[in-house]
Write a structure and sequence with these properties.
There is one protein chain. The N terminus is likely disordered. This protein starts with 10 loop residues before the first strand and ends in a 6-residue tail after the last strand. By secondary structure, the protein is of the alpha+beta class. It is built from two helices and five strands.
């Protein structure tokens, strides 16, 4: 099930990867009206408060195929595809 927003909005397709899907009740795809990653994280944190701390700790974001590590102010264009990728623990 995808959340639809009105056509006159700045809509991006957002895909949650890894364990972030568990924090959204199993939903992995959204259509959100956001213009940058900061707005994206704020909306996700509002909808899913248990996800908010994870968004602050080393999340990578891929916007239209380009990966950003420190992306808070990275621009999200209309019709962009955004993947939110959790930090991978390693040893």
């Amino acid at each position: 099930m995808r959340l639809r927003t009105p056509r006159n909005k700045h809509v991006a397709r957002v895909v949650l990867n890894g364990n972030l899907k568990q924090l959204s009740g199993g939903r992995s795809e959204f259509e959100l009206d956001v213009k940058d990653v900061r707005q994206l994280f704020a909306q996700l944190g509002e909808r899913y408060p248990e996800m908010a701390p994870h968004l602050e700790e080393g999340i990578a974001v891929a916007i239209d195929g380009e990966i950003f590590q420190d992306a808070l102010f990275a621009t999200i264009g209309p019709d962009s595809e955004v993947h939110v990728i959790p930090k991978i623990a390693g040893g």
